[in-house]
Design a protein that fits this description.
By secondary structure, the chain is α+β, with helices and mostly antiparallel strands. It is built from 4 helices and 11 strands. Strands 4, 5, 6, 7, 8, 9, 10 and 11 form an 8-stranded mixed beta sheet that branches. A 3-stranded antiparallel beta sheet has the order 1-2-3, with no helix packed on it. A hairpin with a 4-residue loop joins strand 4 and strand 5. The chain is globular, with a radius of gyration of 20 Å. This is ADP-ribose pyrophosphatase. Belongs to the Nudix hydrolase family. NudF subfamily. Its EC number is 3.6.1.13.
């Protein structure tokens, strides 16, 4: 087994933390030093940090029909990068202070895809970009019925315009392989479901 470094109380020295921007998201600047693998403390470094709520992503899956429900919506980050800004994704939403991740998964599935979820199968909790962001993703596969699913959803007051569609799992995996699905949570969820498909179907059928 490989050992992973476990930080102690004295292994990071925060010299200064400054709030540079405060809005829906926040941006902080740190001056800090940290412990080095070869021993001792490193030189002072400066890092900017994107501070935002944790999020939940859930892949609705119908084990009976072997189908998933994916949503498509405009994403400003992809637009700014010069790519097609309409991305095919899992259902997703930010966690408010008083919510549990499972509650968010169920709420967002109704708001974004019109789906009531049954059992939720935890996949992972991970940092999508730990070099510059506090965000963690709680990722699930959620049991659903895909019969009659699909349509346009989203909250008008939040400027959402979200199209939900039913995909066979095989077609979704093909879209992943050829690059039509190109965002982290959806890639991870689909790959995990492909690896665990038999176990999920046996448990849920």
């Amino acid at each position: 087994m490989n050992d992973i470094f476990k930080a102690g109380a004295d292994d990071v020295e925060i010299i200064q933390r400054e709030r540079c921007f405060s809005g829906f998201y926040n941006l902080d600047r740190f001056r800090l030093r940290h412990r080095l693998f070869r021993g001792g403390m490193g030189a002072e470094i400066e890092r900017e940090l994107f501070v935002r709520h944790d999020a939940v992503c859930v892949l609705p899956y119908d084990p009976q029909r072997d189908e998933v429900v994916l949503v498509e919506q405009f994403r400003v980050g992809a637009m700014a990068h010069g790519d097609n800004p309409w991305l095919v994704e899992t259902v997703a939403g930010l966690i408010d202070k008083d919510e549990q991740p499972e509650e968010v998964a169920r709420r967002e599935s109704i708001e974004e895809a019109g789906l009531e979820l049954g059992e939720l199968w935890p996949v992972s909790v991970y940092y999508p970009s730990p070099g510059g962001s506090t965000e963690r993703i709680h990722l699930y596969v959620g049991r659903c019925s895909s019969v009659g699913a699909g349509g346009v959803f989203g909250l008008e007051e939040e400027g959402e315009d979200i199209r939900a569609a039913v995909w066979s799992l095989d077609n979704a995996l093909e879209a992943l392989r050829d690059g039509r699905i190109d965002n982290a949570a959806t890639i991870i969820a689909l790959q995990w479901l492909a690896l665990n498909r038999s176990e999920i179907r046996e448990a849920w059928i």
